[in-house]
Amino acid sequence: MMDKFIYKTKQQMATAAAAAAAEKIRKAITKKAQANIVLATGVSQFEVLESLVNAESLDWSKVVMFHLDEYIGLGIEHPASFRKYLKQRFVNKVGSLKAVHFINGEAADCQKECHRLSQIIAQRPIDLTMAGIGENGHLAFNDPPAGFETEQPYIIVNLDQKCRQQQLGEGWFKTLEDVPKQAISMSIQQIIKSSCLVVSVPDKRKAEAAKAALEGPVTNLCPASILQQHKNCKIFLDENAASLLS
Q1: Using one digit for the tens of pLDDT, what is the confidence trace for 55-91?
Q2: How far apart are CA 146 and CA 163, in angstroms?
Q3: Helices (H), 33-125
Q4: pTM value surpassing 0.85
Q5: Which fold has domain 2-238?
Q6: Which residues contact 97 (CB under 8 A, 6 or more apart)?
Q7: What are the residues whose beta carbons fall under 8 Å from the beta carbon of 122, sequence distance 6 or more?
């Protein structure tokens, strides 16, 4: 079931999304003494992660973290590196996690890196995945037309022009040519295996994608539309992102 929540401001949206995520993590720890989570990056997650790291009564030493995607060939010191992003905004702030499984986009063999991560995550059912929706409707870096049937947890994907333009527009790169053309991404099938999805969608520029994902047909031409079929998906939007919803 997909539940939709709309808030007046981005900060209110982020606070609510983080609270829902924290509650799911607490419940997983209570039930099985451990929580396996997947975190997203990007502008949509700034305030969400800030709120999450400040959540009360969370034992981060019982949390195993994966992340959704990473550019291929981008150094960890680059401002757009998602490993750098998560280290600065989450890992370094919560203290000692039980385990952290980063995607190494600089691996000598990225197919082997996909296989390595896929083997690890296959042994750890995911309790919570936090994500956003791209301007092109992508989920993680699964740009349209996304591989809805691919079973491998981590895959190599090609980034389309609209996705790369979004990364430039958000200020992560100086020119479009600087934006990598490939990434390692969690697959659609792996994302929807998560017990719970918390999806944060702020800003007017996401309004068309939000409408297509939440109210349009389920199609790989809008990868995030698959969220409509998930049994426990919570979508958090600010008023700008929700402005085109009926």
Answers
A1: 988 999 999 999 999 999 999 999 999 999 999 999 9
A2: 13
A3: 46-53, 82-86, 92-94, 110-122
A4: yes
A5: Rossmann fold (3.40.50)
A6: 60, 61, 63, 64, 65, 91
A7: 153
**With contact defined as beta carbons under 8 Å apart, do 209 and 224 qualify?**
yes
Q: Give 107's Cβ-side CA count (13 Å radius).
A: 18
Q: Beta strand 197-201 with 99-101: parallel, antiparallel or unpaired?
A: unpaired
Q: Which residues lie closer than 8 Å to 133 by C-beta, 6 or more apart?
A: 44, 139, 199, 201, 206, 209, 210, 213, 224
CA angle 222, 202, 22 (to 5 degrees): 100
Domain ranges of the chain: 2-238
pLDDT digits 0-9 by tens, 217-246:
999 999 999 999 999 999 999 999 999 999
H or E, element range at 29: helix 10-32
